[in-house]
Amino acid sequence: MGGFAERTVNEICAAMNRAHISQRELAKRLGVTEARISQILRPESNMTLRSVDRILAAIDGFDQ
Known about the structure:
This protein has helices at residues 4-19, 23-30, 34-40, 49-60. The chain is an all-alpha fold. It has a single domain (4-63), classed as lambda repressor-like DNA-binding domains (434 Repressor (Amino-terminal Domain), Orthogonal Bundle), CATH 1.10.260. It is globular, with a radius of gyration of 11 Å.
């Protein structure tokens, strides 16, 4: 089992898959580039809890 960052990225990716949301759509919802999403979704990206919260909120809002 990987570290916290790796598990967090895996959970975000799993949530994206469940919601059928692409990196492109997530980027659009967050107002960032697709390349930035790609960077964020690397375990070594050292994202903040605030970023995790924003990402999960954007994914959760996909089905609404």
